[in-house]
């Protein structure tokens, strides 16, 4: 193993240590396997000697020994295989969970710098390869040299000159193993990352099915997928060539040694310096001596491949986190909260132009603050800062007088409910999604939340009511229905601050009225920040902030801003015209 492999393997040790009893069991099955192999060679010699000397009276004993060997072999192989598979599955499971717990704690910015397809490939394809490194290849790498060593001792006892000839093949195989292993590891890393790229394209295709169909992107996306898929196959063919060469050379050395040993041991039997039984045992033992070496290149290659997968999983595990461990979210104080934003400036990247500059405002408990302004003005960015997604801003954000930096992020976020533009529902039933708002909610509370969200009637009309499966990302529901379920979920969460991001932007009029009514109920008794493009929906806001190019260029009530006849009035009039012409 090269340095990289060594350090990867060292990192796997704690995961393996958890199953030390199983490894203890595997060590025993390995020793039993070696012992049984040697016993088998001894048994062969005994049978041959008895046959040549026509000692038929020994057959009863030989059959009993044979049965004993068979029983022990069956038990050994069953236990060995069971332990290897179960340890492999458990280690992969532990790594999967460690990686997932890490991904869930990634800071927003880090998560968004990764493609979900690449992450998925690491959590599935790469994870799958690791089990072999920790069990099958590892145990074989220990067992095979040990078996070769024991066979060599046994062979030396039978005929030391022959034993030395067989052993001389070992170094050749070792050099081959190291050489092929190195090449295979490089190619497998290439294959794994190509697979990740193809999963990335696959995911883009699956997630944009409607858009890709509408835009006729099938040929373009198929070409992109085809290109990646072809790259994978060409790397795999390269890998197959290396495996083939390793196997071919292994077989050559294997048979060559076998033939030399057969011819020489036969010659020694003919000249009377070796018994026929010993010759049989010798050929069998020689197999045990040479076989491990012939297996070495392939085993080494497989191990390197598995460690390559482990490297990619550890890259996921090494990502940054925004808090230390995953625990149940704290429940925020339900009383209406105040929020103050003072001189907040922010740029996504160092030295880049600021997206927000010296933004300040105050939301009193229970107030509704609307944020409006042209596209790209920084509205969504402001929400992201409020939710603590980018802690590296300048200025101060406070809730009830306490700063964002003064408390754990989980606690900070427990004060917020968020209804985004694109509602996300999780796979599962409507009820499951509602319970994400409050795990403890009773059936009566769920029903009440659905009523408040104008969702009760349509949910009742569904064949399975609240138990209806919403489909992947809620695709079995209409846009408005999804949003009303999301609002019911937010009602159940009952957080004191509500962030609404153009929740009605994509809806038709009827749906919008229903959603708007639901939102108005949700906003009651809560401090609300709402991003709105349809300015008609925010006329009753306590304060309207006009955010343009990262600056608050106007603030006031709807009437005040209309009277000022500035930016807001311009936006409002344009909006009204658009509505009329629509
Ligand atoms: N992750 C990001 N990395 C770099 N720049 C970003 C990122 N997200 C947004 N921006 C940039 O920040 C600016 C403000 O974007 P933001 O989404 O906050 O605007 P917005 O006012 O919400 O726009 P819209 O009304 O169109 O949703 C834009 O110029 C955008 O390109």
From TrEMBL:
Subcellular location: Cell membrane
Broad class of the protein's primary localization: membrane
PROSITE patterns assigned: ABC_TM1F (PS50929), ABC_TRANSPORTER_1 (PS00211), ABC_TRANSPORTER_2 (PS50893)
One Pfam assignment: ABC_tran
UniProt domain ABC transmembrane type-1: residue ranges: 28-305
Transmembrane segments: 21-43, 63-83, 130-154, 160-180, 251-270
Protein keywords: ATP-binding, Cell membrane, Membrane, Nucleotide-binding, Transmembrane, Transmembrane helix, Transport
GO molecular function: ABC-type oligopeptide transporter activity; ATP binding; ATP hydrolysis activity
All residue ranges annotated as the ABC transporter domain in the record: 339-574
InterPro entries associated with the record: AAA+_ATPase (IPR003593), ABC1_TM_dom (IPR011527), ABC1_TM_sf (IPR036640), ABC_transporter-like_ATP-bd (IPR003439), ABC_transporter-like_CS (IPR017871), P-loop_NTPase (IPR027417), Type_1_exporter (IPR039421)
Membrane topology: Multi-pass membrane protein
Signal peptide: none
Cellular component annotations (GO), alphabetically ordered: plasma membrane
Protein name according to UniProt: ATP-binding cassette, subfamily B/ATP-binding cassette, subfamily B, MsbA
Source organism of this protein record: Paenibacillus aquistagni
Lineage per the UniProt record: Bacteria, Bacillati, Bacillota, Bacilli, Bacillales
